[in-house]
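Hi, here's the filled form for the chain we discussed.

Project: internal
Contact: R.S.
Residues: 227
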Amino acid sequence: MVNDKRCILIVDDDIKILRSLKDFLSANNFCVFEATDGKKALDVFYENNTKIDMILLDVMMPNMDGFEVLKEIRKSFLVPVIMLTARGQEYDQLNGFKTGADDYIPKPFSPSLLLARMEAVFKRIGKSAESILSAGKIRINNLKRIATVDENQITLTPKEFDLLYYFVLNRGLTLTRDQILNSVWGYEFEGDFRTVDTHVKQLRIKLGHCAGYIRTIHRVGYQFEVE
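And the returned structure, exactly as it came back:
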């Protein structure tokens, strides 16, 4: 997210489609990144992964196809991905979902249909336009970057807020320290796992009686869960 705008990475080797989608999404208040092949897509994503909220990913591309790109991203990241392709066969759709796609839209499609499907995915993962998340006694407004416990606002550093938001967004999942570093600090961050542990420790202090929501998974990482 940049300046309260959700950010989309569009990956398509068809320049006309790429520009058309970019213009449409920009007009609908999205920040847009773009790439014309699989390798460029990974470069753009790794450089901007803390900003990108969703990827629109074509399947048939030079250098790396969409399935290869998706497999690489899913090794460390949970960013939602919608596959865009001229292929509409059931096998390809099943392959996309098995690889970790959140939705699959065959071409040609209308921009309004795409936007509706995007909003459905955002709503399903808790990143709808309002960007309000709740978990137990915790409530987060990602647009205003405000977090409350028992309706009382708590003071968080930018990274503490990003970490809490990431935990709540992925509640119930066991997250490795490597996943947390890549998603919250960015792929090129040169720190180590102690950075994660230090921020978790400070975050727990500020969460008070909700500190137990963040569970330590021995030798792995953390899991956010509300009992």
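Let me know if anything looks off before we file it.
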